[in-house]
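Re: the request from the purification team.
They wanted to know what the chain is likely to look like in 3D before they choose a buffer screen. I agreed to run a prediction and write the result into the notebook, where they can find it.
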Amino acid sequence: MSSLIEGFDRLVDINITEYIKNLFYHPFNVAMFILDIAIVVFCIINMAKLIKDTRAWQLLKGIFLILFATFISKVLKLTIVNYILTQFMTCFVFALIVIFQPELRRMLEQLGTGKFRRVFGIEIKTSDIKMKEQIYKVAIAATEMSNSKTGALIVFERDIRLNDIISTGIELNAEVSPQLLVNLFVTRTPLHDGAVIISNNKISAASCMLPLSNDSSIPQELGTRHRAAIGISKETDAVVVIVSEETGKISIAKDGTLIADVKNETLKKILIKNLITEKNKTDEKVKNE
């Protein structure tokens, strides 16, 4: 971070006109300069897409504001202010790595997932019809378990792979059906405790262990299932359907937030929006660019 601040300091002393004048004496250097700028802009735009609408995005804007203030304090020769800001940024960057570890991990994981591959046009598109079938089957099962107050935790894998979560459960690789989902969560059966993972349009595994969220803002009345759902949706881009064993209410967790007490039609609309509509919008946007 200190080297980044020093880079801003050096910008004050750069003679841009002289630099450009010397640059055009060598056509090859011009081509490399244009390529260099294009790569940087391309990377910045796509990295911004990955973290947009997350806490990391708000954090990034705050960092740029502090960097700008540091640069201005240097230009105006506010020595004490500049010293304080420089020292603050040096310590602040290490604190951010600890505080925002889940967001940083999620961003890095996405570099190797479908969101990154779609940028280069090599993503294999999943059938919308097949996905909608899975959503309707899950909605039927969730409604039935809600009526009988059978606790359930169903995770839809998206771009970030959940292989480490799947490995904690029992691999099934079974077709999605309302009957199978209901049977998996029947109380006192071997696989009822834990989560079901739906990946590649199949039930990949059952009885999987999810990371619990330790967010103090989560209401105390919410149990382990809801904390686990919020935890996995915060660390990955998964969408989770929860059925409460105590109240029978259906909830959805996504992006670290909980949408509580949703009905059958609302459940289907939210799942279709997050699993189909938004994905298609991203694909279309990348294609047009």
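For the purification team: Residues 115-126 have pLDDT under 50 and may be disordered.
Please add any questions underneath this entry.
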